[in-house]
Specification:
This protein is an alpha+beta fold. The protein has two helices and two strands; from the N terminus they run ββαα. The protein has a two-stranded antiparallel ribbon.
């Protein structure tokens, strides 16, 4: 089971259940959650997309993805 929780708001972003979850499925679920929640955040914050994009870039650079 893969669960994604927003650390700030403590809301559940995604729950994905499967017998086996590989890296591609994790990335797919992350992208799906980001699409849904970035669009939601953009309605409240004009800079949300650039902020999330910068944070994602830093994360992927750190993880060497």
């Amino acid at each position: 089971m893969l669960t994604m929780i927003d650390e700030f708001s403590r809301t559940c972003l995604d729950i994905h259940c499967a017998r086996h979850i590989n890296a591609d499925e994790v990335i797919t679920q992350l992208v799906n959650a980001m699409i849904v929640h970035v669009i939601y955040a953009m309605t409240y914050d004009a800079n949300a997309l650039s902020t999330i994009g910068a944070n994602l870039q830093q994360f992927t650079d750190h993880q060497r993805v």
